[in-house]
Amino acid sequence: MAFAHALKIALAAEAGLDMLHVSEQRNLGWTEFPGVRGTLERWQLLPPDSPRSAVASLGIDVRKVVMKDRDPVRAAERFLEKNPTDLVVLAAHAHQGQMRWTRSSVSQPIAKAASAATLFLPYGCRGFVSQADGSSTLRSILLPVDSAPRPEPAIEAAWRLAWALHSPEITFTLLHVGRGEIPSVEAEEQPGWTWKKVTRQGDVVDTIVAVAGECAADLIVMTTAGRNGFLDALRGSTTERVLRSGVAPLMAIPAALM
Length: 258
What we know:
With about 260 residues, this protein is α/β, with parallel strands linked by helices. About 30% of the residues lie in helices and about 25% in strands. The strands form 3 sheets. It has a 7-stranded mixed beta sheet, sandwiched between helices. The protein has a two-stranded parallel ribbon with strand order 1-2. Strands 4-5 form a two-stranded antiparallel sheet. It is globular.
């Protein structure tokens, strides 16, 4: 699922797509990676039996990178330091109430290397990109907002993604949990786009999860307080606790990113 989402977004942005696999054996075969051409053929974006060069004709540059290392986190850190990345896409595994990579030995090294937006796809949740045909079902985005951290980076990321995926009708739900009015923000207006404002009181995480269910959110987008999306999303923060619920894919946007 993470691969399907990364490939779809790369196609929409005409971006480079790096697929990283870490193994103790350097002679890993390409069959260990998800099939890019096979997927694009299944999505009817390439004809059957297309050559490798056909992928570039779609405006994307795909690299399959194998790094030899016993420690995948250390290898990912080295890769990200040398290859600046705009978006990291990860499959997330809930394990005994915590994400498997919340251990400091895993989250902190990656966080130092990747101050990028991060799209987490919890196992078992419904994504918004079909693995079968590549179609997007992004129709509802939940944006928890507060005065701090500032919500603008998350709001901009949300509408840019919706625009890139050509979502014809989509509802953006701005949720403020607590006393007072919802922060004043500028909304991008497009035909078929609806912006709603919701104010609730109660436990922040429980309320976000509840409203995500009420509005059938296909994606939750949250601004994280610091510069490192990984670090903020995986250190007992509100973002990490929402992610653990597995209610929907979650995109974490570092406040200092935009």
